[in-house]
């Protein structure tokens, strides 16, 4: 568990009008927006429902976020930063490059770690939202403008961490960033498919070892594509 570690994730300030992590109301907005999006889905989630849930007003929510799309991207950024933090923490004392990459792969599919320092964020439910609706954050008509505003820097930073781990085992691999983003999307897609579109994956959604099976799939992909069988390891 990461309970004893102080977690202070820095989110792009362009995503909010006021930092929600620094006030009780802001934390309630984050906490209950996650619960409501999970309950209703992003399309049916509204600031009106959120205001009612937190016993506040829509106007108070608009003081933090321009609209629900921006709030959603903020939550995605929090998640991406959280995953990157966990990868860096759990690989900190791991020297062997292949094991470092395997550790990172497992983090991508395992949302069981919780932080008492961010009690207002349910990482498990947020992970479920990312799996089911995460692509809606950047599959939008405004993606180019939002990209210029740096809305997806956290996702890019996460991909860079994974890409660097790939290059540590095979410095000549030509597609490290493509592989990194593919691993993240493959993890989410197969978790989603296993529960809702089972013919699109070979992993059963009711498998008690679901996360492990998806992790095995990611390991198979990454080490096959990186052409690395574990016998030729570059020193970390």
Please characterize this protein's 3D structure.
By secondary structure, the chain is mainly alpha-helical. It has one domain (13-225): Tetracycline Repressor, domain 2 (Orthogonal Bundle). The protein has helices spanning 24-40, 47-53, 58-62, 68-90, 97-109, 123-133, 143-148, 153-169, 176-196, 210-225. The model is unreliable at 1-6 and 229-236 (pLDDT under 50).
Concise synopsis of the structure shown:
The protein is mostly helical and 236 residues long. It has helices at 24-40, 47-53, 58-62, 68-90, 97-109, 123-133, 143-148, 153-169, 176-196, 210-225.
What attributes does this structure have?
mainly alpha, 0% strand, 236 residues, disordered N terminus, disordered C terminus, Tetracycline Repressor, domain 2
- Uncertain segments: 1-6, 229-236
In the CATH scheme, the class would be Mainly Alpha
What number is the mean pLDDT? 90
Structural class: mainly alpha
How far do the termini sit from each other?
25 Å
Number of DSSP E strands: 0
How much β-strand is present in the residues?
under 5%
Secondary-structure element string: HHHHHHHHHH
Number of domains: 1
Number of helices: 10
The CATH superfamily turns out to be Tetracycline Repressor, domain 2
CATH architectural arrangement: Orthogonal Bundle
Helix content: 55-70%
C-alpha-based Rg, rounded: 18 Å
From the spread of the alpha carbons, the general shape counts as globular
CATH topology term? Tetracycline Repressor, domain 2
Main beta sheet: none
């Amino acid at each position: 568990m990461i309970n004893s570690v102080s977690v202070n994730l820095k989110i792009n300030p362009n995503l909010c009008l006021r930092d929600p992590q620094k006030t009780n109301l802001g934390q309630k907005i984050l906490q209950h927006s996650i619960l409501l999006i999970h309950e209703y889905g992003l399309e049916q989630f509204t600031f009106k429902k959120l205001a009612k849930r937190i016993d506040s007003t829509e106007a108070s929510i608009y003081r933090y976020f321009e609209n629900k799309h921006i709030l959603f991207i903020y939550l995605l950024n929090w998640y991406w930063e959280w995953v990157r933090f966990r990868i860096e923490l759990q690989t900190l004392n791991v020297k062997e490059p292949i094991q470092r990459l395997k550790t990172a792969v497992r983090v991508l599919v395992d949302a069981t770690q919780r932080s008492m320092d961010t009690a207002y964020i349910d990482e498990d439910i947020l992970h479920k939202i990312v799996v089911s609706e995460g692509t809606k954050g950047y599959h939008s008509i405004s993606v180019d403008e939002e990209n210029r505003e740096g809305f997806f820097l956290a996702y890019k930073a996460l991909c860079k961490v994974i890409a660097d781990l790939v290059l540590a085992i095979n410095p000549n691999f030509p597609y490290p960033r493509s592989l990194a983003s593919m691993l993240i999307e493959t993890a989410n897609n197969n978790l989603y498919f296993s529960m809702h579109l089972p013919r699109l994956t070979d992993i059963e959604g009711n498998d008690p070892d679901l996360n492990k099976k998806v992790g095995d799939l990611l390991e198979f992909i990454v080490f096959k594509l990186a052409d690395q069988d574990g016998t030729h390891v570059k020193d970390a």
